[in-house]
Amino acid sequence: MAKTLFDKIWEKHVVKEIEGGPSVLYIDKHFIHEVTSPQAFKGLEKRGLRVLRPQQVVATADHNVPTLNQHLPIKDELSRLQVQQLIENCKKFDIELYGLGHPYQGIVHVIGPELGITQPGMTIVCGDSHTSTHGAFGAIAFGIGTSEVEMVFASQCLLQSKPKLMRINIEGELNKGVVSKDIILYIIAKISASGATGYFVEYAGSAIRSLSMEARMTICNMSIEMGARGGMIAPDEITFEYMRGRRFAPQGEDWNIKLQEWKTLHSDADATFDHEININAADIEPMITYGTNPGLGIAVNAAVPATDSIPDEGERKNIFKALEYMGLEAGKPLIGMPVQHVFIGSCTNSRIEDLRMVAALVKGRRKNDNVQVMIVPGSQQVSKQVIEEGLDKVFEAAGFEIRQAGCSACLGMNEDKIPAGEYCISTSNRNFEGRQGAGARTLLASPLTAAAAAITGVVTDVRELLQ
Amino acid sequence: MKSLTTIHSRFVPLPEENVDTDQIIPARFLKATTRDGFGKNLFRDWRYEQDDETKPKKDFVLNNENYSGEILVAGKNFGCGSSREHAAWALEDYGFKAVVSSFFADIFKNNALNNGVLPVTVSEDFLQKIFAGDAKATLSIDLSAQAITIDATGEQERFEINAYKKTCLLNGYDDIDYLLSIRQEIELFETSAN
C-alpha cells in the first residue's frame, strides 16, 4: 500500500497500539532546555526513577539566558536558579549539556540541526512547540508538555494518537524579495492560526525542493502557528549535503548505510492525504502581520482588512480587538509606518543563511536613527561564523547591535524585551499580545523585510531596496 | 493525578477566540522550577493594569465578582501557541476543573488532560447557548456519559474523548504509570529496532 513520509516513520516507531486508545511511540531524540524540564526532573525524582536513555537526551540553555555578558552570572535571580537547576539535573542524570559558555550552546532548534543530531527518519521531541523545526530533515518532530517530558525521561516513549495528514504543495518560482518566511506567513494567513489543528503537515512541491535547509527549517518551525502538530519535508540531496560531515552525523560506512535508508523517506507517488492544499509560488509576496496571531498577515504593500467587510462575527471581533491592541487602523496600509525596533533572531530566523541575507542587503547602508536593531545569532557556532565571514563588520557599520546566542526578544522572558506601545518588526514566530514584552506590538516578517525597515525606519517593501 | 467523574458548577465566560498560552500565563512567570502557585498569575496581563495586583481591570471576567465556578468557557482555538504546561497548571491552580470551547489547540489539550483539567469540545452553536446564559447559570459535565448539560434549559451535548484518556481521568491514572508497566516491551522494541 502506498505510504506517506509520515506513515513510514511513524510505523517504524510504534512499540505497540492500545486498543481504543493511542499508540506507544518510541522517541529517538529528546531535546531539553531550562524552562520546561525542571518539574519533569522533580517528578522523576519523586518516583525514584532514573532517565532511561540519557544518551538520547541533549540539553541546552536558551530561553532564559541573557544575550550580553554571558560570561558573568545571570543577574535575575530566578533565571539564574533555573539555569543552575538545569546544570545540576544534567549532572545528576548523566545528560549532555551545551550550557552557557559551551561552544555548542544556542537555541535548541538551531543547535540540533547544525550539530547533525537531527537526522532524517527520527522521532524527535522537546518541551517546546517549535520542535516542528526538525521536521525539515524528514523527521517526525513535535512539541510536548512537561508531563510528557517526564514520560520520555522515564520510558523513552510517549502515548500518541496518529494525527490526520495534510500536504501543502507549493509549485513554481518565488518572486524577487520573497523568502521562506514569506511562504509560511502566506500559508498561515490563508488557512488561519487554527487551520491545521489535528494535522501533521508535509510541505512539498518544486518551490520547497529548491529551498536550502535553513529556509526549510523556517517553514517547518512555524507549522505550530497554524495549529499543526508538526511539519515535515522529505529529505533529498540538499538535506544530505547539509548533513555530511556535521559533528554527530553518521561517518564512514555508517553514513552510506544511513543514506540508503534516508533515500526511501518520501511519500509514495499514490499516497493519499486527509487534506491537500495547492499554492502557486508566484502568488506569494513579501508578507507582514498586523494582528495578534500569526494568521493575521498581509502582503507588505496591502492594506489591513476593513473590519466591516468580514462576514464572520467572531473573526470580526478578533480583528477589531487585535487592531486596538496594535494601535492600527482597519483599511489602511502599513507601508511607511514608523517602527522603533527591529529584532532579527529566534528559532525561526537566526541561522547563518538568515544573517547572510540581512548582511547582503545592508552592506554599505546604515540604519535609520530612530530604530534600534538587534541581531541575535541562534547559536555560538552561528556567532563564530558571522565573525569568520566578516558579517559582523557589515552589521557594525550599519549600526546594528550584535548579541550572544539565545531566544532573546522572541518571548519576553529574559532581559530582552520591547517596551509597551512600541512597534517591533521581528523575524520571530509569534505576535501574541505581550509576547515580546507587556504591551509590545509585534509585526512578524522575513529577515529581508526586517532589514529593510531597519534601514528606512518604516515598514518598507524590500523590493524597493533590491536592485 | 486526582480522579474526575462529574462537575456541577457555575462557569466563567471568556468569549474570546484564539486565547493563546502567552495570555493564559505570560513567559516572565515561567522561571519557577515547581508546578505550584501559577494560579495567581493566570491571565495576568488581561487581569491587571500595569502588572499591578492592586489595579484589577474591571472589565475582565476574573475580576467580575458576579462570575465564578470550576468551569471556564472560552471561544474557539483555546490554548494555541506555546507548549508550556504552565498554562494548564495555572488553570488548575486557580480552581478550574474543566475548560469548555468549540476547538482546542492540540498540545494544550494533552497538557490539560495530563493534569486532570478536562477539555470539553462542544459545537459552536452549543457554545453560544452557554454564553447566552446569565451569571447564575450552571453547567453539568458527566465524564462517564461524555455529556455536558446547560442545567437551566436541560439542553445537552455529547463530547468526544479518547477512551484511554477517559479511563485515566476517571481513575486518576497517569500515562507514566502505564509506560513504566511496559518497560520490557520497550526494551524488546529497542533491541529489534537495532
Protein described:
The complex is a heterodimer of chains A (467) and B (194). Chain A is of the alpha/beta class and 467 residues long. Chain A has two domains: 5-275, 2-Layer Sandwich (Aconitase, domain 3); 300-464, 2-Layer Sandwich (Aconitase, domain 3), CATH 3.30.499.10. In chain A, 31% of the residues lie in helices and 17% in strands. Chain A is built from 15 helices and 19 strands. In chain A, the strands form five sheets. Chain A has a five-stranded parallel sheet with strand order 5-4-3-6-7. The termini of chain A are far apart. The model of chain A has no long low-confidence stretch (mean pLDDT 97). Helix content of chain B is 31%, strand content 18%. Chain B has helices at 21-24, 44-47, 86-94, 106-113, 124-132, 163-171, 175-181, 183-193; strands at residues 6-14, 71-74, 98-101, 118-121, 138-142, 147-150, 155-158. Chain B has a seven-stranded mixed sheet. The longest helix of chain B is centred in the C-terminal third of the chain and has 11 residues, at 183-193. At the A-B interface, helix 2, helix 3, helix 5, strand 8 and helix 11 of A face helix 4, helix 6, helix 7 and helix 8 of B. Chain B: Pathway: Amino-acid biosynthesis; L-leucine biosynthesis; L-leucine from 3-methyl-2-oxobutanoate: step 2/4. Chain B: Its EC number is 4.2.1.33. Chain B: GO terms for molecular function: 3-isopropylmalate dehydratase activity. Chain B: This is 3-isopropylmalate dehydratase small subunit.
- How many strand elements of chain A? 19
Count structural domains of chain A. Answer: 2
Q: What form of chain B results from the Cα inertia axes?
A: globular
| CATH level-two architecture of the largest domain in chain A | 2-Layer Sandwich
CATH class categorisation of chain B: Alpha Beta
Name the pair of protein chains with the most residues at their interface, and give those residue counts.
A-B, 68 and 53 residues
Proportion in helices of chain B: 25-40%
- Rg of Cα set of chain A: 21 Å
Q: How much of the sequence of chain A is in beta strands? A: 15-25%
Helix content range of the residues of chain A, please? 25-40%
The end-to-end span of chain A amounts to 50 Å
Alpha-carbon distance between the two ends of chain B: 35 Å
| Strand adjacency order, main sheet of chain B | 4-3-2-1-5-6-7
Q: Report the major sheet of chain B.
A: 7 strands, mixed
The sequence of SSEs of chain B as H and E is EHHEHEHEHEEEHHH
Number of helical elements of chain B = 8
At CATH level 3, the topology of chain B is Aconitase, domain 4
The oligomeric state of the chains shown is heterodimer
Gross CATH architecture of chain B:
Alpha-Beta Barrel
